[in-house]
Amino acid sequence: MAARGLVHGPLGETCLHLCVDMQRLFAPEGPWAVPWAEKVLPAIEELAGKHPHQTVFTRFIPAEKPGDGTGMWAHYYRRWADVTLANIDRRLVDIMPQLARFVPPATVLDKRVYSPWTGGRLDAALAGRDVDTLVITGAETDVCVLATLLGAIDRGFRAIVVTDAVCSSADQTHNALMELYRSRFSEQVEAVAMQDVLENWH
Description:
alpha/beta, six-stranded parallel β-sheet, 7 helices, 19% strand, globular
């Protein structure tokens, strides 16, 4: 299904760019390399460069050591023991350098789970900012981007997924989620190309 464009009109001062987990962890040199991350990075870099004051980067922070975490997260970090902070170069959690140069004025929000809404830190960061629209980019389409988008929908934000600025390590589920965003969430999600965002955010 083709993108329908910005059906609710142009973007403005009440819009925020929420870039999900574009970190060195997911770059080619990282332990969780996402091949498509390099492909979408230039588009994300352009958007962040145009609106650095209205950009928030999230970072996924792994557990300190294998087995840490609540419930199934402890199991997860036994499976991914090599990606715990005790076993990696901690600089791998950093935002990719092409994007980190925008901080500040862009800001960084750390999280320990897929969703940036858990714990209320993102809600607190948005409080008082008069934001009603979120432009979502980053990785991965079918994991942290999905969790970010669902939280935005639940809170009533106008939610925009930039189709050529999100990526996954699994093409099949990336494509399935893009179809889901465009069909089942068609009343709450606008799936648009980066060019549409750049041309219509004033």
